[in-house]
Design brief:
This protein is of the alpha+beta class. It has one domain: START domain (Alpha-D-Glucose-1,6-Bisphosphate, Chain A, domain 4, 2-Layer Sandwich), CATH 3.30.530. The protein has five helices and eight strands. The radius of gyration is 15 Å and the shape is globular.
Length: about 170
Amino acid sequence: MKRLFTVLTIMISTMAMAQNGKAITEKKTFSRTTSVSAEIKADPAIIWKLLTSALDYPRWNTTVISIEGTIAAGEKIRLKSTMAPKRTFKLKVKEFENEKCLAWGDGQGTRIYTLVNKGKGITTFVMNEKIGGFMFPMYAKHIPSFDASFEQFAADLKKEAETIQNTRK
């Protein structure tokens, strides 16, 4: 219950901060949080399927090179992104609430995807990632900004979900 409350608090504050596909980054001494949100004219089920189909990511998402593994509660995945194409991120799926919340991460950060069904075929998508820790100040300057990548991810997801939604009409 405490975790759900935390997720909801992040989601609400993120929605107020990052709207219309524009990423926002908040920097602190021991952490950095980047968030983006987008209104998507598609059912949550369509968006959820895109977010949880690992092998399909490279087809619709220009920020992802590959994801290996199964995106499901407690599973481990291996992700390669365009931001660091030579690095494979080994991540664990930490939260998995069907059509609502997905979170994965490692010891240095967690990315949370949240879907809010607004009704009438509109879903608010929120992506939030917090990275950091005690040693963060020592390596923070070597981590590039996530803003452009987050904005592209949200735009790619919106485009694909709305395309799928429109073909079902």
